[in-house]
Write a structure and sequence with these properties.
Elements (H helix, E strand, L loop, with lengths): L8 H13 L6 H8 L3 E10 L5 E10 L7 E7 L5 H17 L5 E7 L8 H17 L8 E5 L5 H14 L26 H14 L2 H7 L9 E5 L3 H12 L3 E7 L2 E4 L6 H11 L9 E3 L12 E4 L18 E3 L8 H10 L2 E3 L1 H4 L2 H15 L8 H19 L5 H8 L4 H26 L6 H19 L5
Parallel strand pairs: 3-4, 3-5, 6-7, 6-10, 10-11, 11-12
Antiparallel strand pairs: 1-2, 2-4, 7-8, 8-9
Helix pairs in contact: 1-3, 1-16, 3-16, 4-5, 6-8, 6-12, 6-15, 12-15, 15-16
Length: about 475
């Protein structure tokens, strides 16, 4: 047994915050306010199960900060849900939104159930009851607190939430904005599904294009040819693997809780996904080698390691065996504070979760704006752009006497649709945030790692908000 103190998830977040706060100019009182969770709603409510029995459900909603309104954060369904975890995730949401310049305060919700052990009807009853509890206490609303999907939840649950909210708030014109991650037909936005994985790709790609960082790591610039290991084949892991593969990287290993597979020539995430769907496991995938334990994948030699599953998978017990040059935290809190210390010594760059997986909340912000404006992105300008581009193309062809190829014509003529605009907005957000964090790190050599630089970036932005609100004259 290690004699080191084992930190709870919330304490880990606070420890990272304290480490970064010494590099900021804010006084102790303001820092304490930024760190504190403003409101914690812990609830218990009864739900009748299919067999007629009554189960008392434990659930939470934490609003970490109201320096910007509304608050924003997912709802997870998991047996591991507890108040500490929800508080930690809510505070990370505050910092995450600040870094990527999304004007929300942080929040998080959790229901302590195993969704696999409940029928769809039971899950619907639990979700709708949870929503009505939030409405009763004014803990949900387009201008108050806007939940979203998280671990164990998805579009279906968000549709139940918006329907319950609308039935309890008849005539509220912006009711669709009370939750994001909804199906398209219920006011969702195109591009939300792949948003977190695509954000992970954009963030890491930007770091890979920084010559000074690549030189330190002994890597070539760019994505092409890089070897990638992805832990987790859920929505985030799947899309992270997909975008890296499509841009010329090799995904050499994929891990899931049942084990891991390896192929030095690269794996196709869709084929692995279909294999798992058919057999119930990623193991024995044609052409790949099985690894004894899922955790073995984390210790493979590779350029980029992407933990996209649960928290604390890399800690003091295995950090010194990690051989990746760059780690992209696609999950929330996959590294313990002890692991961070090990990687600082080894010179491994960790691109931190608190902004790297902000693709979800960024696109949620776009969905919320869409709900408030009551118009689909691209509806007003798509056809105008296409007509204008067609006109320009005709002029150029007329003046030069040359014809543009059919493929080129298609590209030039294309007017942006909703998904194009969402991806473009996400790319802009991730590139800007990466550069801001790197600028802070470069300008202060005593900041030990990119996570601390990201926290400094977040604390400064939240601090400015608080002082400009006049809360701390």
């Amino acid at each position: 047994m290690s004699s080191q103190k084992h930190y709870s998830f919330f304490e880990s977040v606070e420890k990272s915050f304290d480490k970064a706060s010494q590099f900021t100019k804010w006084e102790k009182g303001l820092l304490e306010q930024i760190k504190a969770c403003n409101s914690v709603y812990s609830m218990r409510f009864p739900v009748k199960m299919d067999d007629g029995s009554i189960e008392v459900i434990e659930a939470y909603r934490v609003q970490h900060s109201q320096h910007k309104s509304p608050c924003k954060g997912g709802i997870r369904f998991s047996e591991e849900v507890n108040q500490d975890e929800v508080m930690a995730l809510a505070s990370l949401m505050t910092y995450k939104c600040a870094i990527v310049n999304v004007p929300f305060g942080g929040a998080k919700g959790g229901i302590k159930i195993n969704p696999r052990k409940h029928s769809v009807y039971e899950l619907e009853k639990i979700t709708r009851r949870y929503t009505s509890e939030l409405v009763k206490k004014n803990f949900i609303g387009p201008g108050i607190d806007v939940p979203a999907p998280d671990y164990g939840t998805g579009e279906r649950e968000m549709a139940w939430i918006v329907d319950t909210y609308q039935s309890l708030k008849p005539g509220e014109i912006d009711a669709a904005g009370c939750v994001t991650g909804k199906p398209i037909t219920q006011g969702g936005v195109r591009g939300r599904k792949e948003a977190t994985g695509l954000g992970v790709f954009y963030g890491i790609r930007e770091v890979l294009h920084m010559p000074d960082v690549m030189e330190k790591l002994g890597m070539t610039i760019g994505v092409e040819g890089k070897t990638v290991v992805v832990q987790g084949l859920g929505n985030v892991g799947y899309h992270s693997a997909k975008f890296f593969r499509e841009h010329g990287a090799k995904v050499v290993s994929i891990a899931e809780y049942e084990g891991a597979i390896y192929n030095e020539n690269g794996l196709n995430e869709e084929e692995v996904f279909q294999h798992r769907k058919a057999t119930g496991s990623i193991l024995n995938f044609p052409g790949a080698t099985n690894l004894a334990k899922s955790g073995d994948a984390l210790e493979l030699a590779c350029d980029i390691l992407i933990p996209a599953a649960l928290e604390n998978v890399i800690n003091e017990t295995n950090a010194d065996r990690v051989k990746a040059k760059l780690i992209g935290e696609a999950a929330n809190g996959p590294l313990s504070p002890e692991a961070d210390e090990v990687f600082i010594k080894k010179g491994i760059v960790v691109v931190p979760d608190m902004y790297l997986n902000a693709g979800g909340v960024t696109v949620s912000y776009f969905e919320w704006l869409k709900n408030l404006s009551h118009v689909r992105y691209g509806r007003m300008e798509k056809r105008f752009t296409e007509n204008m581009n067609s006109h320009i193309l005709e002029q150029i062809e007329g003046l030069t006497g040359k014809q543009v190829s059919e493929a080129q014509r298609k590209v030039i003529m294309h007017g942006a649709e909703e998904v194009d605009l969402v991806h473009s907005g996400l790319e802009e957000t991730m590139i800007t945030a990466t550069r801001e964090i790197m600028e802070i790190w470069r300008n202060n050599p005593s900041i030990p790692d990119m996570r601390t630089a990201a926290y400094v970036c977040a604390i400064n932005k939240v601090g400015v908000s608080y002082t400009e609100l006049g809360i701390f004259p």
